[in-house]
Amino acid sequence: MTRDETHPPAPELKRVLGLWDIVFFTVVAVTGLRWISRGARAGAPSVLLWVLAWLAFFVPLALAVSVLAKKYPEQGGIYAWVNRAFGPFASALCGWCLWVNNLFYFPSLLLFAAANAAAMFGGLYPGLGDSRLFSLIFVLGFLWFSVGISIQGFEAGRWLQNVGVIGTWVPVALLIVGAAVVFATMGSSTSFTPAAMVPRAASGAELLGVVGLWSSFCFAFAGFEIGAFASQEIRDPERTLPRGIAISGLIVTLIYIAGTVAVLVMVPADQLAERSGIADAVDLAATRIGLPAVGPLTAFLLAASAIAGCVSWMAGSARIAYAAAREGQWPAPLGALHRRYRTPHVALLAQGLIATLIFLSSLFLTIGGGATTVQESYDILVNLTLIVYFLPYVFLFLGLARLLTGAELTPGLRLASFAGLAATVISMVLVFVPPAGTTNVLNYEVNLVWQTAAVLAGGIGLYYFGRRQRAAAR
To answer: What are the boundaries of each domain within the chain?
Structure first.
């Protein structure tokens, strides 16, 4: 018997993904319509801020991912690269951050959905989207709906994903058409002269608030490394992945800039309700041309898309916890499967419970007096998601210089490493600038600090838990 017969080759993943598969997959995964209305809060300077985010963050990220995916095409992407550069502790912390950021993402996404659901009945129930009671019931209801449908398996939620795709792209088309109608009939509500696109404000604090939004512009480009996680399933990944990132990056950038400009053509920044801004803008344009039903339809589609996104990420991220538990790195119960549906139900229930506690803390934990508004809770959750998600990028850009040697590390890549690291760190610092309209600055800051500290402590604790588990198994 030969050695090949006793040790057959390990099965390999099928290479089925081509260039346009990567492009469409990345565009759908990365594009977030809520960043359009969040970006529009900056007014005309949003165009310049989008361009700066593209140059300082997206381009370095695209270069880093393309180069490292070509040199290290193994499955795992950023997790595998950080492990090579800095070892198991750093990679374990990155893996933890890539999972736990979803627990902040779920309630923030559902707050966006709640505002758009309320916009469907804006004329009947004004102020509903800012109601803490309505937001509480809506977010917790659909959060646990997402848990329940995810426990039943991917097939149970397939219909919702179809609605989600429609809810993502139809509103973009309606937004662009509506802006064209308003511009042709009434002109733009916002001036886009070169002078108007430079950030200015009546006070230093107001200017800092506008510039502080830049972190969200950078975060809107986060996730372009997603294709590298499946590099062993891509045909000719050394050529396909860099080209796919470049093409999808151009498409996403155009969507963000065109969408933000379209919103501002119809609604001036000082009258914009961030979470329902797209639906409000479309409703304004549709009403002017005698189609009042289009606005509520857009609001419904945006809400449905956000709920579908929550279900998708709820199901997908639970697999990370499940895999880590099966490998002995995280507590064993998270690796349990439901007897009937064969899904990681314990991991899903844990995600729902932790996300619930995070949401309640952001909405009801108030330091310094006064109740936290729904918008302030949304800002806290969005910025916590950014801090946690960006930590792996710090390791990525630092690791780029460590993993490339000699002639591989060209001056251009050195510059990309520095620029990407600087943009990432600056973005993480800028989230501590309270957004315009924050009434309780102390509460905002305390929530960011203590919840970030809790995340880091949890990641470090799980790393040492996993080490003890593996040592005991030897």
So the answer is: 13-433+442-466
**Closest by Cα among 248, 228, 240, 227 to 19:** 240
* Terminal Cα distance for the chain, rounded: 31
231 pLDDT higher than 90 = no
pLDDT tens track for 175-225:
999 999 889 988 999 999 988 888 876 556 666 777 788 899 999 998 877
Read off the tokens for 315.
């199901």
> How far is it, in rounded angstroms, from Cα 47 to Cα 198?
9
* Spatial separation of the C-alpha atoms in residues 78 and 391, rounded to whole Å: 12
Tokens 């916009």 locate to 119
Instruction: Look at residue 123 and tell me whether its pLDDT is greater than 70.
Output: no
301-315 per-residue burial string, b: 16 or more CB within 10 A, e: under 16: bbbbbbbbbbbbbbb
Fold of 13-433+442-466: Amino acid/polyamine transporter I (1.20.1740)
Phi, psi angle pair for 2, to nearest 5°: -85, 165
CA atoms of 298 and 175, how far apart (whole Å)? 9
**The pLDDT of residue 376 is above 50:** yes
- Both tokens of 361, joined, read 């803390």
Q: Phi, psi at residue 9, to the nearest 5°? A: -60, 145
237 within 8 A of 69, measured Cβ to Cβ: yes
Q: How many CA atoms does the CB half-sphere of 365 hold within 13 Å?
A: 17
Residue 321: burial class (beta carbons within 10 Å; 0-12, 13-18, 19+): buried
Task: Give this prediction's pTM.
Answer: 0.85
Residue 107 makes CB contacts below 8 A (sequence gap 6+) with 139, 143, 355, 358, 359, 362, 381
